[in-house]
Amino acid sequence: xxIWAMPYNxxxxxxxxxxxxxxxxxxxxxxxxxxxxxGSSPARTAQTAAYPWSTVLKLGLLNPTPAWGLVExxxxxxxxxxxxxxxxxxxxxxxxxxxxxxxVTATPAPARNAVPALSSDGWSGLHLWYHDASNARCYYSxxxxxxxSLYATQPGYKWPCVVQTSMGPVxxxxxxxxxxxxxxxxxxxxxxxxxxxxxVAAAAHPYSLAVDRHGLLHLVYQDGAGDLAHRWSExxxxxxxxxxxxxxxxxxxxxxxxxQAFLSCYQGLTMEAYTVDQDWAGVTAAAAHPxxxxxxxxxxxxxxxxxxxxxxxxxxxxxDDGASWQAPV
Length: 329
Prior knowledge:
The protein is mainly beta. It folds into 2 domains: 2-58, no CATH class; 68-318, Neuraminidase (6 Propeller), CATH 2.120.10. It has one helix at residues 42-50; strands at 2-7, 19-25, 28-33, 57-58, 68-74, 77-84, 87-93, 104-108, 117-120, 126-131, 135-141, 149-155, 157-165, 168-175, 180-185, 196-201, 208-211, 217-222, 228-233, 243-246, 250-256, 261-267, 270-276, 283-285, 303-304, 310-311, 317-318.
């Protein structure tokens, strides 16, 4: 018996004879198969014929990959969150990411496909949104991440995130039953929700929401074809028609600064980094990112800090608009 893990973008892939899909880790399928007499793999052959991914891993055991979140609290101070089996841990840096304090357990029991969404209120307050088996939850820290407590619970949602807009905080959540991202205005960062502002049909997959320097909201999400689509809105009520940005990608993370914006995503198990075009009509490939710093397939965040440096992992940034990447100094 052989066990294989392979990238998967949510679009139909029919296992060949002798291959059983055991479980779905979002972008990873776990299959087992009877060993072929010639040593070949029907799972590998069928998968690589169906998709342009070459990385297929033979495994004895696959644990859920970690996922990261990142936010700049104020100039030079960063907080990152990492999903571990059974909890999220947060780490704080006071020197621009050069060194990080010891981790603090922030939340219990995230779902294995949860992605942390960190946001700052501009003072000492941090919000960490995520989802567990049945609810979207927010944990709050009023001391720059030194300790955390349960702040809000919204049942039945996945992949929550909050962004600050000119109208106040807007909470976005994914509703599995209807297959859509829903947007709500909230005066208290998610404890109570106002009326639903809008909804956007999307695949059951993490998405990313950012606000540009003009106050426009930008949404990047995986559509029904497994591609990354972009929409924008002035008020979270009326959204533009979708534009396909990238084909066959997953786990988008979008960040916008005053002069530039960045997108990170995955093609299979390979992380990619892009700069967003000035008119937000599309993206341009940045330099190859040193993603070996993270496990293959690890969902990673994107931010633009106060220096207009773009980050698409917690460990590397660009100071030249994506032409190259370096560790924090």
